Amino acid sequence: MSDYCQLSGLTKTYPTPRGPAVIVKDFNLNIRKGEFISLIGHSGCGKSTVLSMLAGLSEPSGGGIILAGKELAGPGPDRGVVFQSPCLLPWMTAFENVMLGVDQVFFTASREERAQIATYYLTVVGLGDSLHKRPSELSQGMRQRVGIARAFALKPKMLLLDEPFGMLDSLTRYELQQVLIELWRRNRITALMVTHDVDEALFLSDRIVCMTDGPAAEVGEVIEVDFPRPRERKAVMEHPDYYKLREELIQFLEVRAHRKGTAAPPPPSASASPPAVRRRAPADIEAPMNPA
Amino acid sequence: MRSFKLDWLILPLLGILLVLGGWQAVSGRKAARKDAEGKVVSEERVGLIPALPSVVETWQASRIYILEPFAKRGEMDQGIARFTWYSLLLVAKGYGLALLIGTPIGFLLGLSKVFTKTFDPIIQILRPVSPLAWLPLGLVLFLDAGKEAGTLGALFTIAICSMWPTVLNTAVGVRAIPQDYLNVARVLKLSRTKTLFKVLIPATLPYMFTGFRLSLGIAWLVIVAAEMLTGRPGVGGFLWQEYNALVYEHIILSIITIGLVGFILDRLMSLIEARFKSI
User: Checking phi first, is residue B231 left (phi over 0); if not, alpha (psi -120 to 50) or beta?
Assistant: First the structure.
C-alpha cells in the first residue's frame, strides 16, 4: 500500500497582534506503509508543529492528513507518540504508565493479556527488571525506554517521535537508537521522527525530509537513504554513500535551508519587523510541544 | 550529633524557658495588706500586670485538669483532653465538609476560565470575612434546628471559613499541571473520568494537601470562636466560661492547649503533605 499516510497542503498559522504568523506553509508529504521517515531542520523551523498536527494535538489551519484511508480529526491512540521528555506520569510505575495506554486500546482483552502486552514491551526495551519502579527511580534513558515501550505497546498505525533522544547523552542516545530500530524492525510500524541529529536520521530512516527555515516552513528536499536493513551502526557508517549523504544533509542545513526560507515571500504583516524577531516567533510557539 | 541536639532540643527549650521567665516576671502575685498590729486586713495583687496569673499559679490551678485529663466532673468542668476531644470532633466534621465542598470548587476554578471569571471575585470577597462574622449568620440559618442550632451554626462557620485555602490551592495545582501530562491523556484519548482520576487528581495532590493543611489550621482557629459564642463544651467553650468565672489561670491553660493541638495537627498534615510531594 503506497501513500499510507498523506499530508497535503498542511498549513499552520497562529494569530499574533501583528497578524497571523505562518509557521508551516503548504506542507506535502506521502508516507508509505512501513516506512521510517525523519523530519530534519533547524530548531524552531516547525518540524514539531507538523508532528503535533499529525498527533492531533494541534489543529491544522489548512490542508489535511489522511492516515490509512481516513482523515484525521483530533488525537487518538492509533498514533503512538514518543515525546522529547518521556512524559511519564510520575505517580505511576513504568508498568502502570504503559498499561494506561494498553487499557485504552485493548479494552476487550482480559486483564492478564493486557498485563502481558505491557510486560512484553517493557522487557523488549530492556526494563524487565524495573517494571514496578517509578520514573523518579529510573535514569533519563530508562524513562525514554518506557516512553518507547508505551508507544509500541499500543500497536499504533503510526509512530510519531518528537526528538525522542534530544535530551540524552550521546552514549545513551546510541543505545536507545538501537532499541528503537530493533523494535521497529520487528513491528514495522510506519514512523515519522523529528530530529536535528544528522547521524540519527541517516541511521534510522528510509527517507529524510529536510524542512526549510520558518516562518512558512515547507518541504525543502527529500533524501532517500537505502542502506540495507537490518542496519548495524558500524556497517552504516562504513557504507560508501554515508559521508556523501551526510555531506548533502549538512550542506542543506547550512546553506539551502536558509536560502529557501528567505526566498519565500515574508508574511505581509511581519514585513516591518526585523528578521531576527520573525525567526524567533515559530520557536516560541513550538515551545508547548517541546517543554525542554 | 551534639549540634543536631542543640538545634532541635536545647534551643527550643531555651526559648520556652525565656518566655516562661518573662511571663513570671511581669505577672502579678498575692500580697497581704496588714494593719499596724500585723493582722492581715485584706489581700491584693501586686506586680507589673497584677491580674495576670503567674506560672506557678497557673500550674496550681490547672494541675487537676492536666493530671486527670479525661475526668468529667460536670458539663463545663472536665479534663483538658476531654475538652480537646470534643473540639477535635467538631473540627473534624466542619473540616471534612470544607474539603468536600472546597476541592470540587477548586477543580472547577482550575479547569474553567469562565468559572474562574464568574466566581473568583465573590470568592475573594468572602475569603477575608472573619469567623466571628459568619457565626451569627450560621446560627440564624439553622434557627429551626432548635437544640442543634449551635452545632450546625458552628459547622457552617468552620466549613465556610476553612475551605478557601483548599479551594485556591487546588485551583493553582490544576492550573500548574504540566502540559505534558495533559498531552498524554489526549494522545491516549482517556475518557473524562479517567483523565480526572488518573491524571488531574494525582497531579494536583501535592497542591491539594498544602490547601488541606492550611485549611485545617483555620478550622482549628475557628473552633475556638465558635465554641466561645455557642457555649459548647470544648477548649474554646471552657476558655470563655472560665473568663466569665474569673479563673484567669484556666484561660492560659486553654490557650496553651489550643496552641499545642494546632501545632500537632499542622505537623501531622505536613508529614502527609511531604509524602505526596516526594513522588
Answer: left
Q: Nearest by CB to B179, from A90, A101, A288: name it.
A: A288
Coil vs helix vs strand at B98: helix
**Residue B232: inside a domain:** yes
Q: How confident is the model at residue B193 (pLDDT cuts 50, 70, 90)?
A: very high
Residue B116, pLDDT > 90, answer yes
Q: What percent of chain B has pLDDT over 70?
A: 98
What CATH number is given to the structural domain containing B171?
1.10.3720.10
Average model confidence (pLDDT) across chain A: 83
Is B2 within the bounds of a domain? no
The number of domains in chain B is 1
Task: Please state the ipTM of this predicted complex.
Answer: 0.78
Q: Is A167 on the interface with B (CB under 8 A)?
A: no
**Contact between chains at B198 and A75 (C-beta distance less than 8 A):** no
Q: Residue B256 domain-assigned?
A: yes
DSSP-derived secondary structure for A156-167: -SEEEEESTTTT
In A111-239, beta strands by DSSP E: 158-162, 190-195, 207-211, 219-224
In this structure, is residue B7 part of a structural domain? Answer: no
Candidate from A77, A89, A101 with C-beta closest to B181 = A89
Shortest distance, CA B100 to any CA of chain A (angstroms): 23
